[in-house]
Amino acid sequence: MNMRLIFGIAIVVFMGVSALLAPVIATHDPLEVDLSAEARLQPPSMKHFFGTDNLGRDVYSRMVYGARVSLSVGFIAVAISLLIGLTLGGISGYYGGWVDGVIMRMVEIMYCFPTFFLIMMVITFLGPSIVNVMIVIGLTSWAGLCRLVRAEFLTLRERDFVFSARVQGVSHSRIIFRHILPNAMAPVYVSATLSVGGAILVESALSFLGLGVQIPAPSWGNILTSGKGYMDYAWWLTLYPGLAILITVLSFNLIGEGLRDILDPKMSRAR
Amino acid sequence: MKTYVVKRLLLMVPMLFGISLVMFLIMHLAPGDPASIRYGLNPEVSDTAREAFSEMYGLDRPVLEQYFMWLRRFVTMDFGRSLVDDRPVIAKVMAHLPATLLLQISSILVIFFVALPIGIISAIKRDSLFDKASTVFVFIGYAMPTFWLAILLVFFFSFKLGWLPVSGMRPWYAQYLDTGGQVLDLLRHLALPLIATSFGGLAALSRYARSSMVEVMKENYVLTARAKGLSEKRVMLVHVLGNALLPVVTILGLTLPVLISGSFIFETIFAWPGMGRLGYEAIMHYDYPVVMGVGVIATLLTLLGIFLSDIAYVMIDPRIRFESRK
After folding, report:
1. What pLDDT is stored for residue A80 in this prediction?
2. Measured between CB atoms, does A141 come within 8 Å of chain B?
3. pLDDT for the residue numbered B247
4. A60 in a domain, yes or no?
């Protein structure tokens, strides 16, 4: 069996279960502020596993709730980009011609867009919220998937099973989504898994800049922001959230790579 | 070749048009307008003055009309004036461009000259300790939240070791240093932003160079070269390397959008006086003309970078005939 895949899935399942059970496994209320000197900026201890922040909040509990943010943004943003990428890529590759031309120009525009700048703009002007972050990341990250699906469709549409479906009078949309798409999914799974990690990175960067999840609601990115000013002595505020992001993204990438080894034996020989 | 270049340059026009239109619409259709952001909470500003402000910058006109006004001025490279300090946008952008170019160009150089050797060596010595270590580095590089890396760098090199400055590019004391001292000071300020900016690209490009090399090593002409009895060194340097590194040129072009996206984060973290920070601040202040200016210039730089790397690819790879390339 593939070690990368197992390791990645184990960590992601662990993070997912923690996020789901957040109210159960959190030791404190993530929003509870305690401004007394004994409670603020306490180093990790048995009472506070990851210490406390500048407002005396328990960092471990905030991180457990923060996992909900990161994972849900990752999954929902990728679901949105899958929806757009699969539809446009399928149509583009199946019909070809001017439809393909128009969609490919759109893809090129998305590639050259300073994406992060666009995301920052949209979030600022529409108001920072987790829902806006999910939607915007989804809307700006479908170009790669679209191109991938199109390339699969270009070869698959020439195959005999598509021809036979045509002859039987199956409608175009049914051929695209029921006949060709299932055969084009292998590289999509890989790419989508890798995109989850990418979306989590973008969300944490946005939250870090104050454009994502708004304080006092916890997210890994905004715990890092609050820790930035106290880095000199409260190292736990900087170390743990950053490690959590790194490990989570790494796990999704490991799953993606593992899937690629399984689904596409030709690719895996190259590494 | 000439027609290809002209065609590619012409294709940039509709791209720029599309991208600027999207940005313009997002900005203007979103709730909140600069006049009320700036003066909404200030009781001393009358409604009349607010309307005068909107009228002066044409903010009271229909959105599409505003866009075409913007477009008409853009053709003459006039981006209008900042809503915050009324300086011409082009002057603000030009003042911030050198810092960004310095950072971006040096990180492209670092990525190129560090990532390629890593990729090449790990491909040649596959499954060696070096290869395994570089694979680990690549995985971490892909997963690293680079803004966190930036904080860690500041923590170690500025706070703990005290070797490098925390942020900024040209401090007040720089004017009292001699030329050598100024260059040294600039390099000291450049070091941390440079590491943070190039980190992700290093991982991506070294992985790409490696798999490209491994792919080429399986080709029949490499087998032929070996069968002819050429030395392993010659096979690698002449037959494999040349062919494997061609596609890397295009990848370098594709890292540009990533680098420019990163500049908005890193320039903010390191207080680097470049376009990224200018753009971030303009967004925060609802400074429409500056946001448009930064967005369009960033797009233009990206398009130019991709264009140049495509041209370079076509020029160095004789197998690709430009007529057949889209």
Report:
1. 96
2. no
3. 77
4. no
Residue A114 to residue B15, Cβ atoms within 8 A: no
The answer to whether residue B13 sits within a structural domain is yes
Q: Does A120 touch chain B (CB under 8 A)?
A: yes
Q: Same domain, yes or no, for B115 and B9? A: no
The pLDDT of residue B227: 87
Shared domain for B102 and B21, answered yes or no, is no
Say if the ipTM goes beyond 0.90.
Answer: no
CATH number of the domain within which A146 lies: 1.10.3720.10
The amino acid at A120:
M
Give the tokens for residue B46: 């009358």
Domain-located, residue A161: yes
Strand partners of residue A58: A52
Tokens standing for B195? 């590491």
pLDDT (tens digit, 0 to 9) for every residue of chain A, 271 residues total?
Answer: 688 889 999 999 999 998 888 888 878 788 777 777 777 777 887 777 787 877 778 888 888 998 988 899 999 999 999 999 999 999 999 998 899 989 998 898 888 788 888 888 888 888 888 898 999 999 989 998 999 999 989 888 888 898 899 899 888 889 888 888 888 888 899 899 999 999 999 999 999 888 888 878 888 988 888 888 887 788 888 888 999 999 999 999 999 988 888 886 555 444 4
Reading the block at residue A233, the tokens are: 């002595």
DSSP chain A: --HHHHHHHHHHHHHHHHHHTHHHH-SS-TT----STTTTTPPP-SSSTT-B-TTS-BHHHHHHHHHHHHHHHHHHHHHHHHHHHHHHHHHHHHH-HHHHHHHHHHHHHHHHS-HHHHHHHHHHHH---HHHHHHHHHHHS-HHHHHHHHHHHHHHTTSHHHHHHHHTT--HHHIIIIIIGGGGHHHHHHHHHHHHHHHHHHHHHHHHTTSSSPTTS--HHHHHHHHHTTTTT-THHHHHHHHHHHHHHHHHHHHHHHHHHHH-HHHHTT-
Residue B90 covered by a domain: no
What CATH number is associated with residue B209?
1.10.3720.10
Answer yes or no: do B19 and A112 touch at CB < 8 A.
yes
Residue A150 and residue A88: Cα distance in Å, rounded? 8
Q: Distance from first CA to last CA of chain A, Å, rounded?
A: 17
Q: What is the domain extent for residue B287?
A: 95-324
Other Cβ atoms closer than 10 A to B318? 7
Residue B83 falls within a domain, yes or no? no
User: In Å, how far from its chain's centre is CA B234?
Assistant: 36
- Which residue does chain A place closest to B145, by CA atoms? A201
Residue A238: inside a domain, yes or no?
yes
| SS3 state at B136 | helix
CB contact B75 to A (< 8 Å): no
What's the total number of domains in chain B?
2
